[in-house]
Design brief:
The protein is an alpha/beta fold and 462 residues long. It has three domains: 1-41; 74-278, 3-Layer(aba) Sandwich (Rossmann fold), CATH 3.40.50; 284-390 and 399-461, Ribosomal Protein S5, domain 2 (2-Layer Sandwich). The protein has helices spanning 71-75, 82-88, 108-119, 130-140, 155-164, 192-209, 230-234, 332-345, 371-383, 438-447; strands spanning 7-11, 17-18, 34-38, 46-47, 50-51, 76-77, 92-93, 97-102, 121-125, 147-151, 171-175, 212-217, 237-242, 249-257, 265-271, 274-277, 284-285, 290-291, 295-302, 305-317, 325-328, 353-359, 405-408, 411-415, 419-422, 425-426, 432-433, 450-453. The protein is globular and about 70 Å long.
C-alpha cells in the first residue's frame, strides 16, 4: 500500500521535513524524532478548471516612492520601560513580531503585563483565565485603562477579533504559542506543525494590521525555544529573559533584532511590585571591600555596560572516585577547561578535589574576561588564604590594624584600602590576555575605588 502523497515526516527537534521516515534525523542527528504529519498545501482558486490569473493582483513597490513615517512619531512605540527600550533600540516598531522566551516562573508574563499596562493593548490569554491576569494587573499596580484581555486558544478566533477591531491596538501579546492551535494544521496543539502554522498566520496578521505582536515561547531543559528552529527565523526579534528564580536580578537579551542592536542587555530587579529597572550606577554585585578566602572580583561587560561581580569558589578534598565539578553561572565546559589549566599551570592537584564555583547575583556569564577571576578564586580556596597583590598602592595613611588578619566565620580575611580586580582571558598555556572594552572595565573599577591587577601569566599567582 502506497503512502499518501500529503503525508510528510517532521523532526520534532529541528523542524526539518522529510519525504520518508528514518530512525535518525538527517539534519540535526537526533534519534526517533521524525513524526508523521499531514502536509498542508496552499490551494489556488480556479473556475471551470482554469488556473486563476494573478496578473495585476500585486504590484512591485519602488523604494523611491515609499513614504516612510517619522520614527519619533507613529512608527515607533516608546514603552517608558527604559531597560526594555534599551534592548530593542529606540522602541517597538509597529508591525513587528517579537518572540519572547524564558524559563517557567522567570517573569515573562509579569514583564509583558507591565508592558501592556504602560502602552495599552490586547493580552491574549491562552494559559491563564482573565481573572488571573486581572489579579496580576491589580497586584502590580499597572494602569488597567486600555488593558484588554481576550481568552482564546484558536488562531482563527484571534484573527477574526483583530480584523473586526482593526487598528484598535498598538500591542498584542500572545501567551503562549505552545497552547495556540490552528484548524488547518495537523497534529495536537503544541506540535511542530501546529506551532509553525500558527506562528505563520500570526506574523501575517501583524504585518497586515501594523500591530506590534509579542509571542511568548516556552524553552526546553537545555534552554532552547521549544518547537522548530524555523520559529526564530519567522519573527523579527527574539528576546530571552533569564536569571536565577531564587535571585532578584533578571537579564533581558536580544538574540536577534532586525530593527536594533543585539549587543545590549536590560537588567531588572524582581520585587513584590513587579520588575524594576536597574541603573548602571546601582548595579554592584560585590558584597563588601573585604578580601575573603575563595573570592575574586571581576568586571564583566553585559551588552555595552560594565558590571562588577564577585566569583566564589570552594575547593575541598574529595573522597569519591570521581571528584565533583559544579559550576553555577558559568558554562560547564569552560569551567572544566579552567580546572585543567589550574592543575597544569598552578600545580593544584584538582584530580582529587571537589570544585564548586558560583557567580553572585544569579548572573549567567559567557564573558571570557572572567577566566582569571575564576582561577584566582579556586587558587585562593585551595591555598586557604586571600590572593593579594603586593604592588597595589596604599592611598592614605591608616593604622596598621586596617591590614591585620580578621577572623570571620573561621575564615581569614584581610581588610585593605584597595580591593584587587581580576580581569583577563586565560589561554591553555596559562597566558593572561587582555579582553575587549579593557579601558571601560578599568575605568569602572577605578570608579568603584578598586584596581585591575595586570599579570601576563597565571603562574605569577604562586
Amino acid at each position: 500500500m502506497k503512502k499518501p502523497k500529503d503525508i510528510i515526516f517532521v523532526c520534532s527537534s529541528c523542524g526539518n521535513e522529510f519525504g520518508k521516515w528514518s530512525g535518525q534525523c538527517g539534519a540535526c542527528g537526533e534519534w526517533n524524532t521524525l513524526k508523521e504529519v499531514k502536509s498542508i498545501k496552499l490551494k489556488v482558486e480556479s473556475r471551470n478548471g482554469v488556473r486563476r490569473d494573478f496578473s495585476g493582483a500585486r504590484e512591485v513597490k519602488k523604494v523611491m516612492e515609499i513614504e516612510l513615517k517619522n520614527e519619533s512619531s507613529t512608527n515607533m512605540i516608546i514603552t517608558e520601560i527604559k531597560e526594555f527600550d534599551r534592548v530593542l533600540g529606540k522602541g517597538i516598531v509597529q508591525g513587528s513580531v517579537t518572540l519572547f522566551a524564558g524559563e517557567p516562573g522567570i517573569g515573562k508574563s509579569t514583564l509583558l503585563t507591565q508592558l501592556v499596562g504602560k502602552v495599552g493593548g490586547l493580552y491574549v490569554a491562552g494559559e491563564e483565565s482573565a481573572e488571573q491576569i486581572a489579579f496580576r494587573v491589580k497586584r502590580l499596580g499597572v494602569k488597567a485603562q486600555g488593558f484588554d484581555i481576550f481568552e482564546s486558544n484558536s488562531v482563527e478566533e484571534i484573527e477574526d477579533y483583530l480584523n473586526r477591531v482593526n487598528n484598535l491596538y498598538k500591542i498584542v501579546v500572545i501567551d503562549s504559542i505552545q497552547v495556540i492551535g490552528c484548524d488547518n494544521a495537523a497534529g495536537a496543539v503544541g506540535s511542530v506543525s501546529q506551532i509553525k502554522e500558527s506562528t505563520f498566520r500570526l506574523v501575517q496578521l501583524a504585518k497586515r494590521l501594523k500591530v506590534a505582536m509579542f509571542i511568548v515561547g516556552h524553552v526546553t531543559k537545555d534552554g532552547d525555544i521549544a518547537g522548530p528552529k524555523l520559529l526564530e527565523h519567522m519573527v523579527d526579534t527574539v528576546l530571552y529573559f533569564e536569571g536565577e528564580k531564587n535571585g532578584e536580578l533578571r537579564i533581558l537579551r536580544a538574540n536577534k533584532n532586525r530593527f536594533g542592536p543585539t549587543d545590549e542587555v536590560g537588567i531588572f530587579k524582581m520585587t513584590d511590585k513587579g520588575l524594576l529597572d536597574v541603573k548602571s550606577e546601582d548595579l554592584n554585585l560585590v558584597s563588601d571591600d573585604v578580601l575573603k578566602v575563595g573570592s575574586a572580583v571581576t568586571v564583566l561587560i553585559e551588552g555595552t555596560r560594565p558590571v562588577m561581580i564577585e566569583i566564589q569558589a570552594l575547593v575541598v578534598e574529595s573522597f569519591a572516585p570521581m571528584p565533583k565539578r559544579v559550576f553555577s553561572g558559568i558554562d560547564y565546559n569552560r569551567g572544566q577547561l579552567l580546572v585543567a589549566i589550574g592543575q597544569k599551570s598552578l600545580g593544584m592537584p584538582l584530580y582529587k578535589y571537589d570544585v564548586f564555583v558560583s557567580v553572585t547575583g544569579g548572573i549567567k556569564i559567557d564573558d571570557t574576561g572572567a577566566d582569571l577571576a575564576i582561577l584566582v578564586a579556586m587558587w585562593s580556596s585551595y591555598k586557604n588564604k586571600p590572593i593579594t597583590n603586593d604592588q597595589l598602592p596604599i592611598t592614605n595613611n591608616q593604622e596598621t590594624n586596617n591590614n591585620q588578619l580578621l577572623m570571620t566565620n573561621n575564615q581569614k580575611t584581610i581588610k585593605q584600602n584597595i580591593l584587587p580586580v581580576w580581569v583577563g582571558e586565560v589561554s591553555l598555556l596559562g597566558e593572561v590576555r587582555k579582553v575587549k572594552f579593557w579601558e571601560k572595565r578599568k575605568k569602572e573599577a577605578e570608579t568603584m575605588g578598586k584596581k585591575i591587577v595586570e599579570i601576563k601569566n597565571v603562574r605569577e599567582l604562586k
